[in-house]
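Example 9 (inverse folding). The structure is encoded as follows.
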């Protein structure tokens, strides 16, 4: 009986990690996507001036 309960708990824990991890990754991806779009709407990123100084070129976006 103890092994059955341990097996069930292992399955529940593993499925929680598997499904919960995917959900967390999705939320993080969506957060960074919205932040990137918000920064694009504001204008150039904070590193754009440094990139221009290092390369001497302007980016076309």
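The amino acid assigned to each position is listed next.
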């Amino acid at each position: 009986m103890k092994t059955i309960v341990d097996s069930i708990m292992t399955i529940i824990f593993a499925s929680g990690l598997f499904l919960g991890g995917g959900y967390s990754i999705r939320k993080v991806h969506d957060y960074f996507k919205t932040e990137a779009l918000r920064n694009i709407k504001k204008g150039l990123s904070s590193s754009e001036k440094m990139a221009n100084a290092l390369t001497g070129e302007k980016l076309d976006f």
